[in-house]
Design a protein that fits this description.
alpha/beta; 7 helices; globular; P-loop_NTPase; Gluconokinase; Shikimate/glucono_kinase; Therm_gnt_kin; ATP-binding
């Protein structure tokens, strides 16, 4: 069985990067954080508390899709932490890597605000949580993936995701 390409998705503060790293370790696959693929203009906007537009996200989603596609071609699989808030964004990623699996992490708004307020060294301010929650389109039945609530430890979430991928 070929190693999977996985997007750990959700709004900021859900623990995408933490769970994604743990899942990648468990799968023996490369990990990337889509935050590292944002162009400087996007980072500047978010740092200033300005929500990104679909136009802003286009080149970034293209870069995320290329990363997934490359892992698929290399047959290494891979895990990337990426918000992937809208179905249209996930469609871009599926075009690049048709068999991608989405792990959608969810949490209550208050928990997200608390996590983001306590986070250091990240450009995304807690003030953008509400914008992301309004933008979020949950996975639908036609999308390969699972929804996991972050009321469990990141290690447990990664283990659950791996088991659902029939790897763990």
């Amino acid at each position: 069985m070929r190693p999977p390409c996985v997007v750990v998705m959700g709004v900021s503060g859900t623990g995408k990067s933490t769970v994604g790293r743990l899942l990648a370790d468990r799968l023996g696959s490369p990990f990337a954080d889509a935050d590292d693929l944002h162009p400087p203009a996007n980072i500047a906007k978010m740092s200033a508390g300005v929500a990104l537009t679909d136009e802003d996200r286009g080149p970034w989603l293209g870069a995320v899709g290329r990363w997934l596609h490359d892992r698929m071609v290399e047959k290494t699989g891979g895990v990337i932490a990426c918000s992937a808030l809208k179905r249209s964004y996930r469609d871009i990623l599926r075009t690049a890597a048709p068999e991608v699996f989405f792990v959608h992490l969810t949490a209550q708004r208050e928990e997200l605000i608390e996590r983001m307020t306590g986070r250091r060294g990240h450009y995304m301010p807690a003030s953008l949580v509400d914008s992301q929650l309004r933008t979020l389109e949950p996975l639908d039945a036609a999308e390969r993936g699972v929804v996991l609530h972050t009321d469990r430890a990141p290690e447990v979430l990664a283990e659950n995701a791996a088991a659902l991928l029939h790897i763990g």
